[in-house]
Amino acid sequence: MSKLGSLGARLHRGEVGYDFVGKRKIWYGVSILITITAILGLAVRGLNMGIEFQGGAVFTTPKHMSTSVASAESFAEEASGHDAIVQKLGDGSLRIQIAGIDTDKSDAIKDKLAKDLNVNSENLAADLVGPSWGDQIANKAWQGLGIFMVLVVIYLAIAFEWRMAVAALVALIHDITITTGIYALVGFEVTPGTVIGLLTILGYSLYDTVVVFDSLKEQTKDITKQTRWTYSDVANRSINSTLMRSINTTVVALLPVGGLLFIGGGLLGAGMLNDISLSLFVGLAAGAYSSIFIATPLVADLKEREPQMKALKKRVLAKRAQAASEEEQAEARGADLVHDEEPEDDAAPAVVGPRNQPASRNRGRGRPSGKRAR
């Protein structure tokens, strides 16, 4: 954990970092691929709309039913003539959902179902939803989502600028598309709880995005007065400086939501928990991804289309090219200097130690004194 904290501090100070913005085309491609998969899932399988949106009835049996889920599903389809969804709840009761039936026929269906399940008709709870009320719920959900989007764009345009508002809107649409596509592929039922979960994850996604945007706005106040960093460089630094914060908040949020999804919905069989927790789990992960890999790189792309940012990038690149050229020249001069100081390979090696002079061949031959005769 100490190493993780040290890494977060180094990321915040800019000592280390990953080039998110420089590799944005890779992330754009990944996002487009995921989005296309989600759209294909929506087009091919469609959403499994709950009875709140299409009308129908929900029957709940008493606790500790001995009837299996498969048998109850068969009884419900035989009694209604429509497809039925049966879930076994944690207390042993059965939740039988039949969509698309007329409310006028609900009493007859209830009596037939109670007889097949061998329970008293009065002990079989029934909740009826008319199709017109379901349409109203669907329209209200779309209206709420549209109003939320408009308010987000207006707020970001005022607090930051319109480019950041556009980038945040693209990220939100990206998160909604992925979440609804996962719902279509998995086959989970869409209920009002799902809509609540979607609106909640949009708030989380917006929070992560605004944190990065706030850091970016602070670091780019006087960016045109220097020639060291481009806008993309500063955007990348903003992502890295807030990276650990985004990861920590996302992980902390995903842990309890994962408990709701895998324990509450999977083991306990609570249907409403599945509706809310899946949208929260997928949406939180998609929101963290989009704020780092989509929103901020898209802002950098839009900003560097401005004439001022184009000129700044040109100056920064020119200065970097000049610095690189000077560094190469300095390295070349250093190499030449080292080469001049080294001895040549063909030169004779230096003599170390005393030198022995060769004696003359005929000097003092035959004379002990070694002196010449006069």
Automatic annotation (TrEMBL):
<comment type="subunit">
    <text>Forms a complex with SecD. Part of the essential Sec protein translocation apparatus which comprises SecA, SecYEG and auxiliary proteins SecDF. Other proteins may also be involved.</text>
</comment>
<dbReference type="InterPro" id="IPR022813">
    <property type="entry name" value="SecD/SecF_arch_bac"/>
</dbReference>
<comment type="similarity">
    <text>Belongs to the SecD/SecF family. SecF subfamily.</text>
</comment>
<feature type="domain" description="Protein export membrane protein SecD/SecF C-terminal">
    <location>
        <begin position="112"/>
        <end position="304"/>
    </location>
</feature>
<feature type="compositionally biased region" description="Basic and acidic residues">
    <location>
        <begin position="330"/>
        <end position="340"/>
    </location>
</feature>
<dbReference type="InterPro" id="IPR022646">
    <property type="entry name" value="SecD/SecF_CS"/>
</dbReference>
<feature type="transmembrane region" description="Helical">
    <location>
        <begin position="26"/>
        <end position="44"/>
    </location>
</feature>
<dbReference type="InterPro" id="IPR005665">
    <property type="entry name" value="SecF_bac"/>
</dbReference>
<dbReference type="Pfam" id="PF02355">
    <property type="entry name" value="SecD_SecF_C"/>
</dbReference>
<keyword id="KW-0813">Transport</keyword>
<protein>
    <recommendedName>
        <fullName>Protein-export membrane protein SecF</fullName>
    </recommendedName>
</protein>
<dbReference type="Pfam" id="PF07549">
    <property type="entry name" value="Sec_GG"/>
</dbReference>
<keyword id="KW-1003">Cell membrane</keyword>
<keyword id="KW-1133">Transmembrane helix</keyword>
<dbReference type="InterPro" id="IPR055344">
    <property type="entry name" value="SecD_SecF_C_bact"/>
</dbReference>
<feature type="transmembrane region" description="Helical">
    <location>
        <begin position="247"/>
        <end position="270"/>
    </location>
</feature>
<feature type="compositionally biased region" description="Basic residues">
    <location>
        <begin position="362"/>
        <end position="374"/>
    </location>
</feature>
<keyword id="KW-0653">Protein transport</keyword>
<keyword id="KW-0811">Translocation</keyword>
<feature type="region of interest" description="Disordered">
    <location>
        <begin position="320"/>
        <end position="374"/>
    </location>
</feature>
<feature type="transmembrane region" description="Helical">
    <location>
        <begin position="276"/>
        <end position="300"/>
    </location>
</feature>
<feature type="transmembrane region" description="Helical">
    <location>
        <begin position="141"/>
        <end position="158"/>
    </location>
</feature>
<feature type="transmembrane region" description="Helical">
    <location>
        <begin position="165"/>
        <end position="188"/>
    </location>
</feature>
<dbReference type="InterPro" id="IPR022645">
    <property type="entry name" value="SecD/SecF_bac"/>
</dbReference>
<keyword id="KW-0812">Transmembrane</keyword>
<dbReference type="InterPro" id="IPR048634">
    <property type="entry name" value="SecD_SecF_C"/>
</dbReference>
<comment type="function">
    <text>Part of the Sec protein translocase complex. Interacts with the SecYEG preprotein conducting channel. SecDF uses the proton motive force (PMF) to complete protein translocation after the ATP-dependent function of SecA.</text>
</comment>
<keyword id="KW-0472">Membrane</keyword>
<feature type="transmembrane region" description="Helical">
    <location>
        <begin position="194"/>
        <end position="216"/>
    </location>
</feature>
